[in-house]
Specification:
Layout: E1 3-9, H1 16-23, E2 29-35, H2 41-46, E3 51-55, H3 61-74, E4 79-84, H4 94-102, E5 107-112, H5 121-138, E6 150-153, H6 154-157, H7 168-179, E7 184-189, H8 202-213
Parallel strand pairs: 1-2, 1-4, 2-3, 5-7
Antiparallel strand pairs: 4-6, 5-6
Helix pairs in contact: 5-8, 7-8
């Protein structure tokens, strides 16, 4: 199977080059979406061997992910491992995802440790609420709905129409792929929290999640 890393980057000039090089230790192909960065992110990405998709206007993570999905499907990749460009996701975890891919799982979610971690309290609270609500609504237990560290079988994405353009796309994928009876596995991962300001709005993005979840 052809597997690749997919990184959506917005103003990540401080970390992106190091992050990409570390991912190359575990995967042959790395795809980077430069989501209209206004700093030197694109210049830093160009110093690596990553495949680059870039546009000038920031359009949101969901839009960037869909661009990456289209590219990967067109180029006949089988699975994508989705990672952040800020260094929060530990590349050493990639072999865990690949092991589960080889077992035939369609969606592997990196579930973050909540206890004894540096995850901000508001993020813990909104993640708990959204994870509990989704598990009840869809009758499928998911421990971490807001984790962006995932592996996904592209065959499922070919049959799903995705509409969202921001962080809520990750929730849209999760909900729709569960409804298609995908084989799902959660694995425990470590997350590195730095002092950078997150572009995720815990309240607004959680509300977007609930609009998707309860939309008929």
């Amino acid at each position: 199977m052809r597997n690749a890393a997919l990184i959506c980057a917005y103003n990540e000039e401080k970390h992106i080059r190091e992050v990409i090089e570390r991912y190359f230790k575990y995967l042959k192909d790395v795809i980077v979406i430069n989501d209209g960065s206004s700093d030197d992110t694109l210049d830093e990405v160009k110093k690596t061997n990553a495949k680059i998709i870039s546009y000038k206007e920031n359009k949101g993570k969901g839009y960037a992910l869909k661009k990456g999905f289209d590219y990967a499907i067109k180029n006949k990749f089988d699975y994508l491992i989705l990672l952040d460009g800020d260094g929060q996701h530990e590349p050493k975890e990639i072999p865990k995802f690949i092991r589960e891919i080889n077992k035939g799982y369609d969606l592997i979610i990196g579930c973050r440790r909540k206890r004894h971690s540096d995850m901000p309290y508001i993020r813990r609270a909104t993640n708990f609420l959204s994870s509990l609500s989704l598990s009840i609504k869809l009758k499928h237990k998911i421990k971490d709905t807001q984790s962006g560290y995932r592996a996904i079988n592209l065959n499922f994405l070919k049959n799903i129409k995705l509409k969202r353009n921001r962080y809520d796309l990750e929730s849209e994928i999760l909900i729709k792929i569960i409804r298609q009876k995908a084989k799902i596995k959660c694995i425990t991962i470590k997350t590195i929290y730095r002092d950078e300001t997150s572009t995720i709005h815990p309240i607004k993005d959680t509300l977007r999640f609930f609009r998707i979840l309860f939309k008929k």
